Amino acid sequence: MDGPLLASPPEEADLGIAFYLTRLPGVGGRIKEEPEDFVVVERTKWPREDPQGPYLALEVRARNWETNRLASRLARAAHLSRTRVGFAGTKDKRAVTTQGVTLRLHGEPPPALHLPDVEILRAFRAVRALTLGDLESNAFDIAVTQLEGDAAAAAEAAHAVLEEAKAAGGFPNFFGTQRFGSLRPVTHRVGSAIVDGDFGRAVAEYLGTPSPFESQEAQEFRRAFREGEPPAALVRRVPEMLSFERQILEALVQAPDRPLDAILALPRNLVLMFIHAHQSQLFNRVLSERIRRGLPLDRPLAGDLAVPLEEHGSALEDGPVPVTPANLAKVERQVKAGRAAITGLVPGVEAPFAGGEMGEVERAVLEAAGRRRESFVVPDAGRLTTKGVRRPLVMRPANPSVSAVELRGSPAIRLAFELPRGCYATVVLREVLKRPESAWAAPQAPSPATL
Prior knowledge:
Blueprint: E1 6-7, H1 10-13, E2 19-20, E3 38-44, E4 55-63, H2 67-77, E5 85-87, E6 96-104, E7 118-126, E8 135-144, H3 151-167, E9 171-172, H4 187-195, H5 199-208, H6 216-226, H7 231-234, H8 243-254, H9 259-264, H10 268-292, E10 305-308, E11 321-322, H11 328-336, E12 340-346, H12 356-368, E13 389-392, E14 394-395, E15 398-407, E16 410-420, H13 425-433, H14 437-440
Parallel strand pairs: 3-6
Antiparallel strand pairs: 1-2, 3-8, 4-6, 4-7, 5-6, 8-16, 9-14, 10-11, 10-12, 12-13, 15-16
Helix pairs in contact: 3-13, 4-5, 4-10, 10-12
């Protein structure tokens, strides 16, 4: 690819996403004007069916439901605790999604489940729960609307961007903005405070950081917190949808001087999500620096660490393989064939550093952030210690297609592709649209899990 790198908007740069990989102009436009504009179908590793199994497995099609909220409502409808609901992958709210869910029953007959805009496509008894490792891939069908010009020209331009990325070996495998909170990107800041052991700052970031996309009521609540209104008073005015904020405040009412207790009052998976967001920001910085240096994403260098890939493109859990002059040609063939990928560091207490120039990049990013491996041990809450991982640097959309359409009387394009688990459709979209996400994502009311 020729020409200088295109810098990302400041809102993305703050998340470690410093550049676009492709140089071609984008098509502009918006997504998610309606939930039907963003369709996701999950490829799930279903558990084995057993009529006597203790789990009820459900294939669910949901409109405008964020996964964590859907799980909570299903648990309530089935008279189960939230911990008895499992799923293979989380999905955004403003979409039409098809995914797997399991309920761990008490032995009673399966409950009748009726939720608005939720359709049960399939139900069977199963031997085990679904977990996050059971997601193979996600197939997307996304409409881009409010185009400035002709739909056919936009489709041609989008196809050219896809081809440019394909020639580079794929799209950079950044953690997308959803990882940090699509409407209020604050999770990485909360996670950084937890890793620092500064739980008071973690509480302040989570409760007090405002977003213009929130309701006026939510913004006023956060302002009152920043101005020092006591927890006992705040808990009476916290908006109903901010359920996690309420949990923190209730813990602070009981123990005002124990912000750690307030953080630990949240579901463990949510607290870990904060830490993972901080780690994801650091990975994004590593990947951005590799791009800035002009180092290839699809061709291994001596010192790189490579991992094998599954059939659907997800990284296997096997230990990463160091690239040496002796095996360089072999690893390069495996990467080109899509059977292996070069990786970058998602830091933690166990994830290994690369060697060579990539190792220099990873160590420099961590040093600039004031982090070492030991930083990810949380002494006051050992169950929050994170191991880290090696993540592929690129993702290759399977079966990509672009078509010009008319939608609600206006020109639009539809993008369809499939991504391995852990990859973000918005990372593809940002290259195609080439505009800040705040300008191309349709405004929507936030849900607690996206905050």
